[in-house]
Amino acid sequence: MGVIQHKPFYLLSAKDCGNMEVWDVDTQMPMPFPMAHMPMSMLMLHGNGFLAMIAEEGLDRGREGVVAPNMFMADLGTSVGDSQYLNLDVMLTADLWLMPKAGYPELFQIGENREDGLPFIDAQHPHSSPLMGLTLSDTIALDNGDKSNLRLFTAPRGESTDGPIPFMHRPTGVMNPDAPLGHHVGQDSGHVSSTVLGESLKLGGLHLEASAFHGLEPQPSQVDLPLGTPDSYAFRLVGEFSSNFMAMASYAYVNNPEPGVAFSDRYSASLYLRAPLSKNLTFNDSLVYGGITHLDNADYLSSVLEEAALLSPKTAIFLRLEVLQRTPNELNLPTLPNPDTGRWLTAITLGYSHQVASWDGWELRAGASVTNDQTPAEYADTYAGNPLTYKFFFQLGGMQMYNL
């Protein structure tokens, strides 16, 4: 087994792809690309996990807790003939057993139901455990020069072709243990979908993607792998204008995403910038818009996210600015007028992370962050004005690829 060494995964870009690799926009990592008369079999391992200590202000809404959000990926693949590469991607997490029953404390976060049937409020739900994703794909080379290809995939649980780069894969978000507040507001909730059939056609720097999937969202409190008839669809257009600039836009129609909700439309648009400042220092920026209909009885809700990160092999400074709508009913404040009408709120996070140890493509980091929630006047009494959240964390992560 031969080891292929890479620099830290959060510093990778399309320029780091070798002759037999192509840049994967979803994972933000190089993936094998079939070449004539060059058979290959490869294994990629990638993981990212946190141990975070959290203290929130916010009167009765604020909590303290110790949580450990995490994910681990294994990609095993082999070339078939001169132009195909078959790949099995497994994505695992132990979120269900490493988070409190009430969820990861995060003020103004909502989405999904707890084991007791009550909704997660001011908390991030665990992701489907232990299996967050299981995808079988076939990459068919069309042009070796610009690495144009057609990727066909099927996933009992995987990603629909809508939304931005999932938050756990974005270079701007990889150091932040928190899921964005806009996660369910038209952004990247489709990264855990059921019974997905899809394609991604790459023609130079242009990607045309489409998928069909089962709309009912997986229940994060259940250990299962339910399958359903594909009754929903999604389209995404991706433009790689250079190795340092990319744009995405998507739409998804989701049938019966939750009991009592007939359908929902998800919209997203996003921009990604990478600016090398020196050999070991890179500035990354992500700008994301998400919109959704019929979420929690609201006609339409919007979210905007701006993420920036200054990254080096040893240190990282990250910023997240979110402006989004939350309804009183989503936050269990039904006595307010117009309880299904969204009110705008703002969340600002500033964080720092430092590498304390590294070995064979893996590293241990320590970091801290502070979040300030700018609360609408109607929510101020419940959340004690503009509460702060303090966080100290350790992060274990890395990536390694092997020739088999």
Molecular structure report:
With 404 residues, the chain is mainly β. The chain is 2% helix and 58% strand. The chain contains 2 helices and 22 strands. The protein has helices at residues 95-98, 380-383; strands spanning 2-4, 21-24, 29-32, 41-56, 64-67, 70-80, 84-92, 104-113, 119-124, 131-143, 148-158, 193-203, 206-214, 232-242, 245-255, 263-278, 281-295, 298-311, 315-326, 343-359, 362-374, 388-403. The strands form 3 sheets. A 16-stranded antiparallel β-barrel has the order 4-6-7-10-11-12-13-14-15-16-17-18-19-20-21-22.
Give the strand tally. 22
Gross morphology: globular
**SSE run:** EEEEEEEHEEEEEEEEEEEEEEHE
- The share of residues in helices is under 10%
Q: How many distinct helices?
A: 2
Instruction: Tell me the Rg in angstroms.
Output: 21 Å
Mean pLDDT: 94
First and last CA, distance = 5 Å
Largest sheet: 16 strands, antiparallel, barrel
- Name the beta content range: over 45%
Q: What structural class do you assign from the helix and strand content?
A: mainly beta
Low-confidence stretches: none
Widest β-sheet, arrangement of strands: 4-6-7-10-11-12-13-14-15-16-17-18-19-20-21-22
Annotation keywords:
2 helices; 404 residues; 2% helix; mainly beta; 16-stranded antiparallel beta barrel; 58% strand; two-stranded antiparallel sheet; 22 strands
Please render the helix and strand layout as text.
Blueprint: E1 2-4, E2 21-24, E3 29-32, E4 41-56, E5 64-67, E6 70-80, E7 84-92, H1 95-98, E8 104-113, E9 119-124, E10 131-143, E11 148-158, E12 193-203, E13 206-214, E14 232-242, E15 245-255, E16 263-278, E17 281-295, E18 298-311, E19 315-326, E20 343-359, E21 362-374, H2 380-383, E22 388-403
Antiparallel strand pairs: 1-22, 2-3, 4-5, 4-6, 4-22, 6-7, 7-10, 8-9, 10-11, 11-12, 12-13, 13-14, 14-15, 15-16, 16-17, 17-18, 18-19, 19-20, 20-21, 21-22
